From TrEMBL:
Molecular function as annotated in GO: cysteine-S-conjugate beta-lyase activity; pyridoxal phosphate binding
Cofactor requirement: pyridoxal 5'-phosphate
GO terms classed as biological process: L-cysteine catabolic process to pyruvate; transsulfuration
Modified residues (N6-(pyridoxal phosphate)lysine): K210
Stated family: Belongs to the trans-sulfuration enzymes family.
Cross-referenced NCBIfam families: cysta_beta_ly_B
Record's protein name: Cystathionine beta-lyase
Keyword NAD: no
Species of the source: Tepidamorphus gemmatus
CDD domains reported in the protein's UniProt record: CGS_like (cd00614)
Keyword terms of this UniProt record: Lyase, Pyridoxal phosphate
Pathway terms, separated by semicolons: Amino-acid biosynthesis; L-methionine biosynthesis via de novo pathway; L-homocysteine from L-cystathionine: step 1/1
Cleaved signal peptide residues: none
């Protein structure tokens, strides 16, 4: 595990994605790093062992394979260092445990990824950390929620499933006045479309399972910290015994090399499909930050450089049978909980059961949509057939 970047010269983001963390001269000219599988590291002599004077003292502490992905993510995020985790949720857990201790108070956006909420209430609370949730649109008003024991603020922008955009600079400004730590789940935007550390956030987290992996075949997380928080993140990662396997790390660094071209295509396709859906009589609302109709579109334009292909729609009122008819007959849109791969997906959701700081109100069923790399005409045809089934089963239009 390392935070070293060996190519510090500023470069274009597309070039950085392709080159960061790659060192062909050190591996006999081969473009991609080899997969180092191992636990035991042999030391040449006792003096070296006593000082642990080896680049990789033990298999759990990293290898050239994990270095490649860590260095690439660190370069893209503009951080001081990155650690790899077994999943996005594991990365969130590492990041929060790097910051919090018994008696601390944590503020979390009410629009966070639901497993983040479960970790906070199911693990952090048992260890004496108090957790409150805040309206993702609170901005600088978050200052009214601070307590003497408040230690950190956890953001996710846009919000999971419901896609609220947070005023990151305003929240960071409040946090810095009180010397609080800010963390963000940056999975939706990837390091390509949002640079949280440049906006003052201390720790940026990714479920690299999603767009960084890009092929729906890997479970992986990353935690990148600025210079202020990097020592704590690195130490916590080490003490927790967390590590990502070499084959998983290799798949992650393979995926990241095509991130720019995949997201360019998927951003265009996502916006095109979202606009088409806005014109459908069966759709009440489209929740996509890149659309001018989104209530936080101005914030998205200010802080983001692009949009990924994940968004949601709210249908007109209709019975559960109509929703089942819509989803069950889909041919190209799979029904699945993950996203960020090359395939299109749908997932119905209803956050009313767990939101506590905000109230979710929807005219009809809500569906999260991930747009993959299929032909747009085929995706539209699949959805047109779905809407026909929806209407036939009593769904509104």
């Amino acid at each position: 595990m390392t935070g070293t970047i060996r190519h510090p010269t500023p470069r274009g983001i597309d070039t950085e994605i392709v080159t960061a963390g790659r060192h062909p001269a050190e591996q006999h000219g081969f473009v991609n790093p080899p997969v180092y599988r191992g636990s035991t590291v042999l030391y040449p002599d006792l003096a070296t062992f006593d000082k642990r004077a080896m680049p990789y003292p033990y298999g759990r502490m990293g290898s050239p394979t994990t270095d490649s992905l860590e260095q690439a993510v660190t370069a893209l995020e503009g951080g001081a260092g990155t650690v790899l985790a077994a999943s996005g949720l594991s990365a969130i857990a590492i990041a929060l445990q790097s910051v919090l201790g018994a008696g601390d108070h944590l503020l979390v956006t009410d629009s966070c990824y639901q497993p983040t909420r479960k970790f906070c209430t199911g693990v952090l609370a048992r260890f004496g950390v108090a957790v409150d949730y805040y309206d993702p649109r609170i901005g600088a008003g978050i200052e009214a929620l601070l307590r003497p024991a408040t230690k950190a603020i956890f953001l996710e922008s846009p919000g999971s499933q419901t896609f609220e955009i947070q005023d990151i600079p305003a929240i960071v400004g409040v946090a810095r006045k009180r010397d609080l730590v800010t963390l963000i789940d940056n999975t939706w935007a990837t390091p390509l479309f949002l640079k949280p550390l440049a906006l003052g956030v201390d720790i940026s987290i990714h479920a690299a399972t999603k767009y960084i992996g890009g092929h729906s075949d890997v479970m992986l997380g990353t935690v990148t910290a600025n210079a202020r928080m990097w020592p704590q993140v690195r130490e916590t990662w080490s003490l927790l015994g967390e590590c990502a396997g070499p084959d998983v790390a290799w798949l992650g660094q393979r995926g990241i090399r095509t991130l720019a071209v995949r997201l360019a295509r998927q951003m265009e396709a996502g916006i095109e499909l979202a606009r088409w859906l806005e014109g459908r009589p069966e759709v009440e609302r489209v929740l996509h930050p890149a659309l001018p109709s989104h209530p936080d579109h101005a914030l998205w334009r200010r802080d983001f450089t692009g949009a990924s292909s994940l968004f949601s729609i709210v249908l007109k009122p209709g019975p559960k049978a109509a929703l089942a008819a819509f989803i069950d007959g889909l041919e190209l849109f799979g029904l699945g909980a993950s996203w960020g791969g090359y395939e299109s997906l749908v997932l119905p959701f209803d956050p009313r059961g767990y939101r506590v700081a905000t109230r979710w109100e929807a005219e009809g069923p809500a569906i999260r949509i991930h747009v993959g790399l299929e032909a747009m005409a085929d995706l539209v045809a699949d959805l047109e057939a779905a809407f026909a089934r929806w209407r036939a089963a009593g769904g509104g239009a």
